[in-house]
Amino acid sequence: MFVRWLLPVLLALSAEANFFQFGSISNASTYYFNYIYCNIWEGECQPNQDDATQQAVPTSDLWAGFSHDYSSLLHQWYCSLGQCCDSGDCRITNNISGLARDLKTKLHGQHLVQSVVLKAIQGFINNPESNKPLTLSFHGWSGTGKNFVARIIADNLYRDGVKSECVRLFIAPFHFPHARLVDTYKGQLREAIRDMVLRCPQTLFIFDEAEKLHPGLIDAIKPYMDHYDNVDGVSYRRAIFLFLSNIGGATINDVALDFWHSGQNREDIGMEDLEHRLRAETMESHGGFAQSELMSGHLIDFFVPFLPLEYRHVKLCALDAYTARGLETDEATLDEVAKAMLYVPKEERLFSAQGCKSIPQRINFFLP
């Protein structure tokens, strides 16, 4: 009965746009009416849109009129109506055990990633008094799992995964394609990050192909990743920033190849073998990501190396692809799929040049 009484009140508030600046609050009441209608009454709702930039969420004009405490209180209120949430916000799940399980069972050939990512995320989640946002930089060849791990993180920290309104994906060449518009992009990016942080007590920002970002663009958001209590009255300390880059791929491959030539196990490669070399190559590389104050200010908490995948890992990826389609397979078929991939160095055919990215498409050639 409470909800049935509440809905007309929200609609009435929407109509009174001149009282207490209800021009903004009318947007809020519409937003929360839609939330209640979809999630409590299970009415006919519009489907989630894949493009995070098109999500129907309160605008910056709305949140600019509210204090951070009030907006947080408003979110806790509507979440308490939808379902009971231990986290205080139904959108945030922070399933660390699920994250550990997925990294262990779904990610192949990346023991360093499994260890470093889990340690970093778990430490950040368990420390609500962190003095800065968590910033991770993923490095390695295309197809080694950088995007895959970013999705695993989103899936376990948020109820709606990458579609959550607390998660935002930026692809450098797609969202910021023109260098001449960098000043415009700066304002748009700062506003997008600020709005997200005001909407969600814990946010995740993913920057794919980070090496293609203009240095001025990263420097524009550098304060949000620094050791500040707040920036213009907004705290960003509960944000997570992921940067995905191909920078350092050659260095990572050289280390893996050296271990193989010396007869050492791949699993014996440690962060001490890679992190300082990876940091140095990133600092010396071309591109906006390396030249930004993010690097010179030492604001990246962990450089996470993704090792090149071997033949055996490619077979495991192929098995996962078949299983995801509900198809049975055998060793011979898995071998055929793995053999169809390109490997380097050519004389040794050791590392998959394409990783696992193209396997879902590859197996189409082997289906009856």
TrEMBL record:
Gene Ontology MF annotations: ATP binding; ATP hydrolysis activity
One GO CC term on file: nuclear envelope
Pfam families cross-referenced by the UniProt entry: TOR1A_C, Torsin
Domain Torsin-1A C-terminal intervals: 309-366
Keyword Cytoplasm included in the entry's annotation: no
Keywords: Signal
Domain of life from the UniProt record: Eukaryota
Signal peptide bounds: 1-17
Family indicated by similarity: Belongs to the ClpA/ClpB family. Torsin subfamily.
Name recorded for this polypeptide: Torsin family 3, member A
